[in-house]
Description:
It contains 11 helices and 25 strands. It is α/β, with parallel strands linked by helices. It has 3 domains: 2-111 and 246-313, FAD/NAD(P)-binding domain (3-Layer(bba) Sandwich); 115-242, 3-Layer(bba) Sandwich (FAD/NAD(P)-binding domain); 333-446, 2-Layer Sandwich (Enolase-like, domain 1). Strands 3-2-1-7-18 form a 5-stranded parallel β-sheet. Strands 9-16-10-11-12 form a 5-stranded parallel β-sheet, with helices on one face. β21 and β22 form a beta hairpin. The termini are far apart. It comes from Fundicoccus ignavus. This is NADH oxidase.
Amino acid sequence: MKIVLVGSDHAGIAAAKMILTNPENELVVMDKSSHISYVGAGTALWVGQKVENSDDLFYTNPDALAALGAKMLMETTVTSVDYANKVVHAEGKNGEKFEESYDKLVLATGSLPIAPNLPGKDLKGIHFLKAFEEGREVEAAMADPKVKRVGIIGAGYIGVEIAEGIRLRGKEVVMFDAEPHSLMNYYDEEFATAMDENLIGNGLELQFGQLAEGYIGNEEGHVAGIKTSGGEYAVDLVINCIGFRPNADLGGEHIEKFVNGAYLVDRKQVTSDPDVYAIGDCATVFSTAQGKTGYIALASNAVRSGLIAGANLAGKDIESPGVQGSNGISIFGLNMVSTGISVRAAKRFGVEVEYVDYEDTQIEESIKDHENGSVKLRIVWEKESRRIVGAQFVSKLNISSVIHMFSLAVEQNYTIDQLALLDIFYLPHFNKVTNYITQAALKAISQ
């Protein structure tokens, strides 16, 4: 079977490797870039000099896929797809035009940063963070002594992460967001405020609850400020981190789309065209917390979707169990993780929920020479079924592993009542007899 794969980042790489486990498959990979596998989440680490070499932000290369048997067509732009005749039309790096037929087509075209159509958008010094080249431009700008104050529009994960990296380079940072707090796509207000306080405590200026209205330029045509609904703010550089939209233009009117424009896929990653698969940020997912199709653009989801599509194209029969949108962030020593949906998100999705908050230290305060600290958590469950639909944690400790357990709980429709009797081991080195997870569940039952 001949398979054409358009796009070769996280989802595409995972799919390619699985597809090639079947030696009877012929795989042609097309990508407009000269490289693959850039870890975009590492841009902030690079800017903050926690990663010294940008080469460390790539985990594979085109030659590695070619060695597995893929025909790699890099710096190739797919201009259109003839779905009726199953032909991909493309243009090479030197402008040559050519075609590739296919038996099955996999679209892994990812997402594009949202670019606000504001006055002054063409000024120099306005950046986005998605591709490696964009990250390189921002990293290079940090060495410019003229750049003293950086404005970041958008206080989601990417915005907060790059804010830390820039602050670590000694620059002033002012953050803008229409929401009243940072990270509100993933956390409720009571948890988001912990990150706000953390950012302020490390020298960032937060201007939240404001809409960006335009960029202010100087005589040289370079950005010199940001105009918002709250005022005007002088900056030497702007980074837009508003969010992303699915890059699904190739589907045209032929492939059915989700409400946000992403390719609508089933749980085998097949689109409305049975010969076309879609994976990664350009496609929908099945949200187990909501119990329906949704859109959650995360690298982990992209890889998983690629594995599922690739396995099916290799001759297996696999369906996605759904995703929970598990995520985490670590900024200036504050760690936050979440999975499923928050109370705030539940209202938006029309899911009636209840929740419980609990806070305790990790281990007994009397234990010496052991890292200790407070852990705050929130567990969210559906009111009628009592199944757990989300959880949030914040701590100075590394509490990242615990969210995997809650991700599984959401996937398996585990109830808050079952959680109260979960077999959690005890050892003074690791936790208390009255483990905070058990105590939170008991509190939920009693209230």
